[in-house]
## 1
Amino acid sequence: MNAVIQDIDTATARVATPSPSVVPAAAPSTGRLLIDQVSIHLGQGADRFLALDSVSLDIAPGEFVCLLGPSGCGKSTLLGALAGHLQPTGGRLSLDGQPVIGPSPERGLVFQHHTLFPWLTALDNVAYGLKMQGVAKAERRARALALLQQVGLGGFEHRYPRQLSGGMQQRVEIARVLINQPRVLLMDEPFGALDALTRLKMQELLLDLWTRLKTTVVFVTHDIDEALFLADRILVMSPRPGRFIDELPVPAERPRQPELLTTPEFGRLKRHCLDLLRHPDSTLPLTRLTPLGLDPIAPADPSAKGVAATQARFAV
Ligand SMILES: Nc1ncnc2c1ncn2[C@@H]1O[C@H](COP(=O)(O)OP(=O)(O)O)[C@@H](O)[C@H]1O
Ligand SMILES: [Mg+2]
């Protein structure tokens, strides 16, 4: 990390008090994503292959869902389809009943590496979406400034991307997407390039923003800790072609604290995810989780996968 850059991610800066009048929360009734038996083929001719194999998922408005799976299993492919960047070969995708047929600011996408314009300041990068909508300069700057404060970057608005640390760049990137008030936030390993401490700070920031905005979030990761810390529900994917092999509700209370990561209950869920990722198609018995106590029970009944198997309680 560049030593001359003051890095707020590892310093003491706090996220500013919310300003709901500037960034109104999406109504909880919007943001329902429906993935209905979606299959996606990639490649051309003889190289064509099945990347995603008939995945289905109903995501509630305001829900935080993590897609967890090994590298190459089709996570980015599915997110790309949700963003409208590629069309499924089969099945249907819809947001609030409207078919997904192309990109839209209503479905904001954040990648591992930012997509900021290097020649624009943080403020102008964040305000850019409003400029495209024809919003007057004074208003778009005021809204961008408020949003930068919400992501903890008050005072950094005149910096260019190269003058910001990796974590700060991702904060600007998130603000750039949120200024469009998306109904769905699609995040593709957004903190994957950050060091561990910055990553944790960013996870906390994201949860803080999400608590206020209640935008639906679909967050892709191959990091089990990250998925468990963030999600309401985790969909575990098989290696290519990607399928959903388990669905785990994460019933830890919110707001979540980093201490959650060291609880025995968290450890159990983590081991369960590890088992699934290591033996996605195995007939080996997996450690199953009981509805109440998270105690392992008899060898897995393969037909018993899913919600009922993982109703667990956390105490932090
Ligand atoms: N445009 C493409 N053409 C051909 N193969 C691709 C393309 N994009 C991704 N792939 C391949 O499809 C599979 C799924 O990719 P991806 O969705 O990026 O996986 P993940 O995000 O889970 O790591 C991988 O094997 C990848 O190499
Ligand atoms: Mg990917």
## 2
Amino acid sequence: MSFVENEILENADTIREYLKNDKFKSEAIAYERSFRHIPHKLLDVENELLSKLSTGLGAPGSIFDKLNDADIDFGYIKDADGEEIHLTQGNYSKYMKDKNTSVRKAAFLNHGEEYKKHQHTLSMIYYTYISNKKTLSKISKFEDGLEASLFSDNVPRQLYTNLIDKTKSQTHLVKKWRTIVAKVLKLDIKTVNPWDWTQPLCEASDRNYTIEEGIEIIREALQPLGKKYIEKFDYLINARWIDFYPTDNKTSGAYSSSQWDTPAFILMNWTGKLRDVATLAHEIGHSIHSMFSNEKQTQTYHSYPIFLAEVASITNEYLLTRHLLKISTDVEEKKAILENTIGDFISTVFRQVQFAEFEMLAHDIVNKGGSLTSDVLLGISKKLNIEYYPKLENENDSHEFSGLWALFVPHFYMNFYVYKYATGLIAAYSIGEGILNDEPGAVDKYIAFLSSGCRNFPIDTLKEAGVDLQTDSPYNNAFSALSKLISEFDKIAF
Ligand SMILES: [Zn+2]
């Protein structure tokens, strides 16, 4: 804990006196949020010791990064033209989506063999990481690493376990989607392999979108968000806050970045694909969220927390998807939109919640005094594979490498972080459904949410948007939206 934070906690009574003064009243929420940490404050001698041990305490994460980014080497595979390619962390997913089966198979096997070779080291690193978290949470008077991690966002443990239960109750949707995938790809279920599932279902569209076309489509798609939202959208475009074109030495990808006293810059690398239209809608979601919060909140409360960061961007993507499905007359294009959207949902909700449960189970074992060997970790991941991705009838027993993700997901070193991806998407779909179904007050509530910054704790801020993650309704809304998307694909694909 930093010197300043420590001083604040030590002088809470004096600060509370100051906060009674009208001039400082608006800062009270921020300080009270800090004062929650008082019962968890360390003694000076503990702080000093931990600071001297900081390199060792940070070692599991940094050793994992070095091993995973620098020493792990997946070797070479042959691409579809027979050319030798160095398989890397960066191009692995691209080759797993290759049309050529032998390319996907080689990528999968090289990748798996390399991780398997390091399974004992990777397990020991993770065990050490969790052991440290266990000790640190005890010293700080938290029950365990999970409670310590949820504390700053004031998220109840029950929300975390409820997310897991709700998601697991919907895995029939994953099964339905896998049935459709198997049918489209004409897979022989008795002999199917993991690399058969990752090929694309639809031909990549060669349709190109100009920037102007992209903007027009997004503007139409976001109309349901009302006049105030569209005004900000027009301002971003007309005042040229977006840098669209790729140029030499420009950073790759896309992002939105803002400060309290400026609108938000957007960086894009527009190539004219439908994916770019979705990315632009996403980044505009971040920017307009910042603009509303900056406008309404003081500098102390303007920035929205990570827990909420993806809600506005995914809401925009969802509105865009629904708009494109409505206007598109091309069946192939519609199929591709649905495939992407369903794939994003499954990887953001089911996959991340599977990871979230994995973290909880692994921490539980260590908390109870057990250790994490590779057998233990792979045992958990294989069990969770079957629970989250239910097998089809007669499906081939899964490959020995299918549970290896237990060893190499970098986010496991971020201590109970991944569940926020899932809650973000669920909130966004629930908001999108409310707005598209013209629920009374839905737009106003959403604008109030966008204007909230970090004034309240994230789950209370979401309530302003009409999303109470402690009730069933947002989960029901999101999963029923997914169910409809899957049914729509099913209807047009065959
Ligand atoms: Zn984003």
## 3
Amino acid sequence: MDPLRADGACQALRTWNGTADIAAMAAALRTLVPALPEAGAYSADEALAAMRDLGIFLGSLKRHGTEPLSLVPEALPVLTELGRRTGMVPRDTVHHYCTWNPVGERRRMYTGDAQEAHLQDSVRMVFPSLRDGLEKGSSLSETDPLDPKFALLMDELAALLECMVESITMVIDRVSPHWFARELRPYFEEITVGGRVLLGPAAAQVPLWLLDQVVWASDHAEPEYAEFLRESVPYSLPRWRAFYGHWSVVPSVVSRLVQCYGDDPEAAELRHPQLRLSAEALIRMLRVVIVFRGRHLGIARQAYESEVRLYPVGSGGAGVDLLRQILDLTRQTARMSGGAGVPRHDQAHPLPRTCAGARAAQSRATASTPHGSAVPASAPSAVPAPSAPSDQPAPVPALNGKEAPWRS
Ligand code: HEM
């Protein structure tokens, strides 16, 4: 689809980017911007394609040091209209840059380098599975952990998430972190659209964080991750934004599982053998996410090493430290779901809503011990100390004294 008849200009853009020809880019963008009534008459697919093509020019102009809408202000009402029509932000997102981008000769790219195409493809390949995965997440949010359907849904989700591991493995094999840091990363800078600062179309918008939200993050995220989640939501699709809104006000899947374990996990498992199967399936799913995040952290570290990087943080507005924290939280969740950390709560202190809440609950409990310093065995575990990055899941403590589920 080429509603702006931009095929030729998009091809030329690769050359203009190579020579930093801002004048040529700005002139081409002015020609591409449609009249407002024309944009208003586009079908939904045409509106997405138009945003994609305008977007690649916006990112290119910014990469060469100019705020694109200062140079081509006539694009502003059109971007606003295209955003409104599609229910999305008024600039291009990772969906436009990767998924709604043709392959072959018509592929829209900043550089024309094969590594850029690999990165686009690595992101494109995860979206069908992630879309289905989010629907599974929606079903899981309504499924009782005691229902045999819970483990089945969780295993289906784990299978869908394998594509994330395949994707990052492909990137590790085919994309040089140095090239990414020096050549591609600058195109993903934020731009200002009508007074609003909008992030570039980077892979951090891939909504793995939204799955976290339903599975554990709605009530177990650290403040930095919760903020990253909130800031990522606007770049998401309308249905997924609605998921976020709903999942933010209901207990996470992990919290409901932990609640089923109650004060006496062993008795709970004896009463409900299905509970252990549910916990095992959850951990199998988290294990896939941990493998993705371990490998992803490895390549992100290399691209953001101080001698290599041009920017201190990623184009999603966060740094490698946050990736480390997210990986640690995912591991911690797996440990907690494995049973050793299944918190036992007294009636006065029901399930903490956040890790901070968990720590507060822990200090309340500690304060009530005779010496005030020892952490009682039943208290929820605190965030573990960071360990060396790895693509292997961290060892999971025994499940209520038994072997951890994924090893059994
Ligand atoms: C050269 C390759 C890559 C580098 C250097 C990189 C770097 C980063 C960085 C620094 C962040 C932190 C947020 C931010 O951008 O500000 C991030 C987040 C993220 N990236 Fe990447 N990334 C790469 C490729 C990918 C690919 C191929 C995918 C998936 C298909 C991906 C998925 C994510 C996700 C889902 C997040 C949000 C945090 C999370 O859920 O763990 N990244 N990335």
## 4
Amino acid sequence: MDVTSHAEELASALGIDTQEAKDDLEALLSYSVPLEEAKRSVRRKHGGEPGSTDATPETRSLADITTDLETVSVEVRVLTVGTRTIRYQGEDNTIREGRFGDETGTISYTAWQDFGFEAGDSLAIGNAGVREWDDEPELNLGASTSVALAETPVETDAPIGGEADLLALEPGDRGRTVEAKVLSVEQRTINGRDGETEILSGVLGDETARLPFTDWDPHPPVEAGESLRIEDVYVREYRGSPSINLSAFSTVTPLSEPVVVADSAPRLTLAEAIDSGGLFDVEVVANVLEVRDGSGLIERCPDCGRVIQNGQCRVHGAVDGEDDLRIKAILDDGTDSVTAIIGTDLTAEIYGGDIADATDAARDAMDKGVVADAIRDELVGGCFRVRGTLSIDEYGANLTVEEFEPASDKPTSLAAAALAEVRQ
Ligand SMILES: [Zn+2]
């Protein structure tokens, strides 16, 4: 083992940063302190038991593990195993991550080497490090951790294996398996850690929900309209909603039976939707209070797509703008308000004409504002059923609209009905 490996082992056992452990270790070694003595000193400095390498900590229930503990021994059932490569100090490391369960609860783990266990295995784990991750304790399995099959199966109420409906996925999930239909997909080029890389991004759907996905190592079966079984995905948060991530370790198998996809989104009040922190697919019924400036016939930068003013992109300077149609409208349902952003095609439907019609009208009137005025007449004061993606950032709540149509029921009565339901 080199110094880095020893530092990783110490960091894992002590719940500290590897670089910190390495710096400490190297400082001592530079004074010719023998390695074992140096490691004991580092453990002592960070509050660990100085001689604890071989001592096995007492076996604990998962519910009793807190971040105050440095190392623990546990008997657990493996619930999920995800595989991922992370770049750490310039080197690619393949790690395993997922959740363990026992009779008292579940805990997430990261294994820095391959111990060869699979979902469903019952394990006796000695000397696992405890660290804090997302405000929760997490087990770290490293070079100083022992992993063996438990003598008797470990009972757990938690589901074994990673199969999940899209609705059940949560940011932080790893090693999950979904069966879903590819609703849309596009290829994108990103500047990754190894230069330009092709990735896929789009939307997956099943009977319970629709969620965005990214395939970081494009799998050929991922095509629009395909129903797929996708094993070993991990879930991240993207603008408040879960997003599914496929890696080189994910396996994708086409399904012979098509996956049924929900065609409606959950309907919420704006207050509920905004409270949730962001939703990929939601439906609201609300009044249009205002059609904001920057609606109607606009010009975009041909390089970056930003809306430009007077032929100036704020990134690319003077450019030859491209005409486009869009609407930014304030929606309010009595519980809260949101800015709805309506794209080219829906705006053309609402306006009753395409970009060419709008430029003609603007030329005739010698005023681009006539397009926005026509849209105002159409929308302001009206009540609409709106479906789309709600994202929330420091500037407020935005609803990127997918569907937009006149509503038969009034939002205020709906809000009242929702409130009555809650209060029952
Ligand atoms: Zn630009």
